């Protein structure tokens, strides 16, 4: 199946239809598996005909990509809201300036933990690894999320008077790996590791270790995470000067 994700602006009714199909797809994919779930089952769960499905999605691959995009948009909205609250508090001169560890912990606690999406996302990744066309489309979707998270980190660091010693796009890749790997442990050992606990324990400390205060004279270029000179032998880490 070919993977496609380009679509025109939608009417309100069509957006509602797509949301219902996406909600049904999340449930059916999680219950039956991405490979075993059929378009017919998803349509039945959503209360629509096959015609309604194919007027909104080209195929099951297109539906999976749309579901990934939908979940990503929801996640970024949550993170934006949490970060904005902390940015506003940071503007209050009477308030104590929060540490990067405190802000990171608050953001991580706000991430919704949904076992259904973990199952679907994990299987989607495996499916994409076996299908180059799907992989290319999923890589593009994940790149958009990483770019948005890097911008969020950059803005947050700026408000906290910090800069990153490592390119933020690379930092986000590390955080992706930590988050997804931690969830693997959590859902395999639910009685031992709570969902999100691994990332919550490690990510704030990692971010604190990778950030440095920005001198007052450099405040105009805060939080770029981009302009530093790479160290020989370790391109991700920047060298002073």
Q: Major sheet, described briefly? A: 2 strands, antiparallel
Rg calculated over all Cα atoms: 20 Å
The SSE order reads HHHHHHHEHHEEE
The average pLDDT value, as a whole number, equals 87
Instruction: Count every beta strand, where a strand is a DSSP E run of 2 or more residues.
Output: 4
Instruction: Assign the CATH class of the largest domain.
Output: Mainly Alpha
Strand order of the largest sheet: 1-2
CATH architecture call of the largest domain: Orthogonal Bundle
CATH topology name of the largest domain, in short, is Tetracycline Repressor, domain 2
The tally of domains stands at: 2
| Helix vs. strand class | mainly alpha
Continuous helix count: 9
Distance between the termini: 51 Å
**What share of the residues lie within helices?**
55-70%
Low-confidence parts: 219-223
Give the strand content.
5-15%
The geometry reads as elongated
Q: How would you describe the oligomerization state of the chains in this entry?
A: single chain
Structure in words:
There is one protein chain. This protein is mostly helical. It contains nine helices and four strands. Strands 1-2 form a two-stranded antiparallel sheet. It has a two-stranded antiparallel sheet with strand order 3-4. Helix 4 packs antiparallel against helix 5 and helix 6 packs across helix 7. The longest helix is centred in the first third of the chain and has 31 residues, at 60-90. Residues 219-223 have low confidence and may be disordered.
């Amino acid at each position: 199946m070919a993977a496609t994700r380009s679509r025109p602006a939608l009417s309100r009714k069509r957006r509602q239809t797509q949301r219902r199909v996406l909600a049904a797809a999340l449930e059916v994919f999680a219950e039956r598996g991405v490979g075993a779930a059929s378009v017919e089952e998803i349509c039945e769960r959503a209360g629509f005909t096959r015609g309604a499905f194919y007027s909104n999605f080209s195929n099951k691959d297109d539906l999976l990509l749309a579901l990934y995009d939908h979940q990503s948009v929801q996640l970024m909205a949550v993170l934006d809201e949490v970060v904005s609250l902390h940015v506003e508090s940071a503007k209050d001169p009477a308030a104590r300036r929060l540490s990067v560890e405190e802000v990171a912990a608050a953001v991580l606690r706000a991430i919704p933990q949904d076992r259904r999406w973990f199952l679907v996302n994990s299987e989607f990744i495996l499916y994409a690894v076996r299908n180059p066309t799907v992989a290319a489309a999923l890589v593009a979707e994940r790149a958009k999320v990483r770019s948005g998270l890097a911008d969020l980190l950059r803005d947050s660091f700026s408000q906290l008077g910090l800069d990153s010693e490592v390119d933020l796009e690379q930092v986000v890749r590390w955080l992706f790996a930590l988050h997804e790997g931690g969830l693997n442990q959590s859902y395999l050992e639910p009685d031992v590791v709570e969902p999100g606990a691994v990332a919550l324990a490690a990510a704030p400390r990692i971010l604190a270790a990778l950030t440095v205060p920005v001198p007052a004279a450099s405040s105009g270029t805060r939080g770029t995470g981009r302009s530093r000179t790479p160290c020989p032998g370790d391109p991700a880490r920047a060298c002073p000067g």
